[in-house]
Amino acid sequence: MQTARKLLVFLLLLAVVASARKRDPLTEAETDKLREVATEPYKRMKLLIEFADARLLAIDQMRSDPKLADGRGKKIHDLLEDFTAILDEVNSNLDMYAGRPLNKDDKKDFRKGLKAVIEADNKFELKLRTLKSAIDTDPQAKIDAQDYHYVLQDAVEALKSSADMAREYMNDKDKDKDKDSAAENKKK
């Protein structure tokens, strides 16, 4: 009995330590905004894209402002982790909305959301590519990159996954639209 109790206490402490180390990639205000549009696919996707873009914008500002040089590599690391976590949330939302039946208005919103994700992914890809190329050309970026090199690779892979998923769902929705049109024409 004593051993079981010690094991339980140890597991609880381990869980507390593990949860304490995970940062939430969203601010409280961002989380509140997402809650407000929880049932609206397009607005939710648009907000997630806005939040991801804010992380990349913060990285750009940090890289260009010499006053922010202290600890820049670690800060970029954290922003890239947050960016990747937000992209993972985008993917989860795509899966959630694609996997459930939607009414006519929600289908339109979901398609608009897919388009927004694809457009944003193209923009994000350019920003990440610029950050990656700076490592090769800028000596300070090369030093800073020691802190974020691997997280940058993760962000690039997450972005590719997000773009592929959005394009796949867009193609699926186009096929569904074609089927609906064909069925409608048959009825006439």
Structure description:
With 188 residues, the protein is mostly helical. The chain contains six helices and no strands. The protein has helices at residues 2-21, 28-36, 41-64, 72-98, 104-137, 139-187. Helix 3 (41-64) runs parallel beside helix 5, helix 4 (72-98) packs parallel to helix 6 and helix 5 packs antiparallel against helix 6 (139-187). The N and C termini lie far apart (75 Å).
Oligomeric state of this protein: single chain
Could you say which overall geometry the principal axes of the C-alpha atoms support?
globular
Strand content: under 5%
Helical percentage: over 70%
Would you state the CATH class? Answer: Mainly Alpha
Write down the domain tally.
1
Compact description:
The protein has helices at 2-21, 28-36, 41-64, 72-98, 104-137, 139-187. It has 188 residues and is mostly helical. The N and C termini lie far apart (75 Å).
Write out key terms for the chains shown.
188 residues, mainly alpha, Methane Monooxygenase Hydroxylase, Chain G, domain 1, 6 helices, 0% strand
